[in-house]
Amino acid sequence: MTHLSYSLFTSVQELPQEWDRLRKDEFLNLAYLTAQENALPKNMDVFYIAVYQLDKLVGKAIVQRVRVQGEEVYRNNPSSMKEELLNLLNINILCLGNLKLTGEHAYVYDENVDELEVLSLLKEALNEIRQISKKEKLPIQLMGIKDFYQDSKVRVEKIFKEYQAFTVQPNMVFEFRKEWKSFDDYLDAMRTKYRTRAKRAFKKSEGIVYRELNLEEILRWNNSIYQLYLNVLNNADFSLYQLPENYFIEMKKQMPNKFKLFGGFKQDTLVSFYSIIENNEQLEAGFLGYDAELQKENQLYLNLLYQMITYGIDFGFDSLDLSRTAMEIKSSVGAEPIETFGLLKHTNPWMNKVLKSIFSKFYQPEEWIQRSPFKDVDSSLSN
């Protein structure tokens, strides 16, 4: 076995020319990384790891460093005790992986190298970044790795033994069926109750026209797009970061054919939008936004989900990754939950021992009922 080595970089401008040779994941390729770096949240820095076998690139990974202040994390009136604790919270987090995504987007590697050896190097690199951060007077309190599915979790835990495994909400993934050639085929596969619900949602959204925006139009409508995004962000219970105003512009500039942004217009007013990223045969649901006052009246969010499904069917994708929020409504359109895991380590050994207990105090999983909209799916699920 040939020994592996790694190099650290702090900018996409420094990355080796062969970086995109490993094209397994659009979210680790130059175009996406450039867009992210050009539109970083103000509390985030990025590091890149290149793994080599001799002089050949055989792996790559992303690490994000986030500065967290408690009152900026919980946005929706935490309990008084939690609020008091959060006001004292001021920590730096180092994460192997991408906090803006759900799923396995932390690293990729050549199939001819040993994944465990790659993971050992990534652990070494993560510790080096911790030392760099200390010199920059940004001492790291929490180190994490995200996200992994069950089969990957076993391998990662072999290397990161001192880290604590945790799970949060499941990733909601919609699988497209080969026999669906149109949105009507999708509706025909539904039980009557859910087909009626979909048609009711379409009726409520009459007068709203959805269309894809090109770069020029995104520039023109960017203020409205950003305000709609903030509407959703500010209604969230928890968020580690806020996108800057140029995020959607940069995504379209760097990924003109892979990044799609669709606006929902009511007459001449933008009332909703959604974004998607094409990642090989998969679609990744990106950030979205809507007018909170019109949400219930026009069922804006549900219609955005149907719009994404329509796109996936029309262009023959295998799946649509809808991330881990609003699980019940996503299951009602056909998405299935996939359990995801992360690993956490506190750099204080004593705190690390009680980390799981602390985590459970601050994080309460959302209670939800899994829906089953299709005729041929296990009837034991709630319908």
Automatic annotation (TrEMBL):
Protein name according to UniProt: Peptidogalycan biosysnthesis protein
Organism name: Profundicola chukchiensis
Lineage, opening ranks: Bacteria, Pseudomonadati, Bacteroidota, Flavobacteriia, Flavobacteriales
